[in-house]
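Run log, item B.
One chain of 201 residues. Sequence copied directly from the ordering sheet:
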Amino acid sequence: MGAPPSRTRSCDGDRPRRVRFDTQIMQNPDISGVEYQQGTLAEYEVREYCLEKWGRACIYCDAVNVPLQIEHFVPRSKGGTDRVSNLGISCQPCNQAKGSMRLTDFVRNPKRLSRIQAHMRAPLRDAAAMNATRWALYEALKETGVPVSGWSGGRTKWNRSRLGIPKTHALDAACVGSVEDLVGWQQPTLTVACAGHGASS
């Protein structure tokens, strides 16, 4: 077992984000004033939200454990926007088959179409509820006196991708927040199993 990975923190003065998703950037991709709210990181924030919102499965064929792509219900070529209310996720074959068709032209199954449209109508309500819960937890932890900070899932994914680090639970934890580099992450993660009295481990 090697030493745990060490993190090099940046000193850019970023304010901790105490949210699972940044709903402000997802509602208004053109917002300005904060560096992370534009460009590459904003794309990661939106993609991570869409994956979670749609259950990490293709909205058209229910495929899972395959590469998923951002899907525009109203194509950009027909005036569709990048707002999350117009975004879903699909596998590559479905995305290619849909092409520049509108959602209502591509999805012929009435039940599936109705389900997708119902899910589209409240794009940020679930994220807002999760953020409120996390904020309350953050405040409760802060009252204990221990150092606490919170960051969005989009930033964690951005850090991992930028540093070329594979996705695991342990490495995700190491990539949270403002990180310049991660050293020693190739070391195996030590796991511990619990066994009851008289049971073999």
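Observations after the first pass:
- DSSP finds eight helices and four strands in the chain.
- Residues 9-19, 28-38 have pLDDT under 50 and may be disordered.
Flagged for discussion on Thursday.
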